């Protein structure tokens, strides 16, 4: 890595920068939002589980980490294994050094008979939702976008019955999967309605993360049958509530699913959604397919952020920035391709910031 150039002078605060790209206006530089949870807890001397168990400590751990590293992203609450705990199963919080996020320890659906017995939970009390509500109240208090996790329907169903059981049922008992998808949609709409009834809808930006629909798990044909109609229904119903923009992390190897994702709305009335992608999807492809109507985010490989040298991380960020700055209407932000690993060297996160300061300005 070459000696750094003299630092450029920023002329916008983070909220101004993010507001500019939402409106399709030129910011001073590309926003940098790393996609980061457990790292923040460790950064301020807390157990990783704190990010998921304690809304206030999670919020301020993220806020202080953003202050320290100078990135633009605001605090966010969520976790990939959402659903199992909320529907009455058991969750295991990360306790060891190598555990990064909660995982389901006991699934609420473990037999075919359980599918019909499964009831929609009370969204005011279920699982992580009270924590998420407290977190959103802090976002409201501090004038930030108000987020709520509306996990992808395929990911949610995988956390209800286990991914392997879901995949077997897609082949042998597809009607059971459709029943679970229906319940997943109804639950997510219930969650969105609670948030819309509680907070100013114009400040809301629900967060959708969908890893289990990736082609490492299901085929494009299965995505078309099991994911597309239900995911589209969730987005349409949430946007019909008055929500203007949704943040969707399209995780993993999704290249063959991208034509279907194009059929799903992410914003309304000219307001863009935010679509982030894993490193498996080329940013140029993402921009070509989604960039006219959405902000594109990504997609530095998390493995590289944890195990790569600073020189490798810097080069990967610069490559992303060069592609991302070609997005129409300046609608790109630098982000990891998935969550920044808890064990990532702090200097590698700083290196991401360094890359955007040296190569992210719009001349």
Report low-confidence residues grouped into runs of 5 or more.
none
The structure class reads alpha/beta
Return the CATH topology. Answer: TIM Barrel
The backbone outline, from C-alpha atoms, is globular
User: How is the biggest beta sheet arranged?
Assistant: 5 strands, parallel
SSE blueprint:
Layout: H1 14-22, H2 38-43, H3 50-53, H4 55-69, E1 90-92, E2 103-106, H5 112-117, H6 129-141, H7 153-161, H8 163-172, H9 174-198, E3 207-210, H10 220-240, E4 247-250, H11 258-261, E5 273-277, H12 283-290, E6 294-300, H13 302-307, H14 310-324, E7 332-336, H15 346-359
Parallel strand pairs: 3-4, 4-5, 5-6, 6-7
Antiparallel strand pairs: 1-2
Helix pairs in contact: 4-6, 7-8, 7-9, 8-9, 9-10, 14-15
Describe the fold and architecture.
With 363 residues, this protein is of the alpha/beta class. The protein has one domain (14-359): TIM Barrel (Alpha-Beta Barrel), CATH 3.20.20. Helix content is 45%, strand content 9%. The protein contains 15 helices and 7 strands. It has helices at residues 14-22, 38-43, 50-53, 55-69, 112-117, 129-141, 153-161, 163-172, 174-198, 220-240, 258-261, 283-290, 302-307, 310-324, 346-359, and strands spanning 90-92, 103-106, 207-210, 247-250, 273-277, 294-300, 332-336. A 5-stranded parallel sheet has the order 3-4-5-6-7. A two-stranded antiparallel sheet has the order 1-2. Strand 5 (273-277), helix 12 (283-290) and strand 6 (294-300) form a beta-alpha-beta unit. Helix 4 (55-69) packs across helix 6 and helix 9 packs parallel to helix 10 (220-240). The relative contact order is 0.13. The model has no long low-confidence stretch (mean pLDDT 96).
């Amino acid at each position: 890595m070459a000696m750094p150039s003299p630092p450029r002078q920023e002329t916008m605060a983070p909220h101004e920068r993010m507001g500019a790209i939402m409106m399709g206006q030129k910011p001073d530089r590309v926003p940098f939002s790393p996609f980061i949870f457990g790292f923040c807890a460790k950064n301020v001397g807390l157990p990783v589980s704190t990010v998921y168990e304690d809304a206030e400590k999670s919020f301020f751990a993220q806020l202080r980490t953003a202050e320290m590293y100078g990135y633009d992203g605001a605090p966010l609450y969520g976790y990939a294994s959402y659903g199992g705990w909320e529907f009455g199963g058991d969750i295991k919080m990360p306790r060891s050094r190598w555990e990064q996020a909660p995982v389901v320890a006991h699934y609420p659906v473990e037999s075919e008979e359980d599918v019909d017995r499964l009831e929609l939970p009370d969204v005011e009390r279920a699982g992580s939702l009270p924590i998420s509500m407290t977190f959103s109240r802090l976002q409201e208090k501090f004038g930030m976008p108000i987020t709520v996790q509306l996990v992808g329907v395929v990911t949610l169903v995988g956390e209800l019955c286990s991914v392997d059981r879901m995949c077997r049922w897609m082949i042998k008992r597809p009607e059971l999967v459709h029943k679970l998808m229906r319940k997943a949609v109804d639950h997510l709409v219930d969650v969105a309605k609670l948030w819309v009834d509680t907070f100013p809808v114009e400040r809301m930006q629900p967060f959708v993360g969908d890893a289990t629909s990736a082609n490492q798990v299901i085929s494009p044909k299965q995505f078309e049958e099991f994911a597309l109609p239900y995911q589209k229904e969730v987005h349409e119903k949430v946007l019909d509530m008055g929500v203007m923009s949704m943040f969707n992390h399209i995780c993993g190897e999704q290249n063959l699913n991208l034509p279907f994702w194009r059929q799903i709305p992410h914003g309304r009335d000219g307001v863009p959604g935010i679509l982030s992608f894993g490193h498996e999807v080329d940013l140029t492809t993402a921009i070509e397919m989604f960039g006219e109507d959405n902000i594109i985010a990504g997609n530095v490989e998390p493995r590289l952020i944890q195990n790569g040298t600073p020189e490798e991380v810097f080069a990967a960020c610069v490559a992303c920035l060069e592609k991302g700055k070609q997005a129409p209407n300046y609608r790109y932000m630098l982000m990891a391709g998935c969550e920044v690993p808890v064990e990532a060297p702090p200097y590698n996160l700083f290196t991401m910031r360094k890359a955007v300061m040296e190569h992210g300005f719009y001349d």
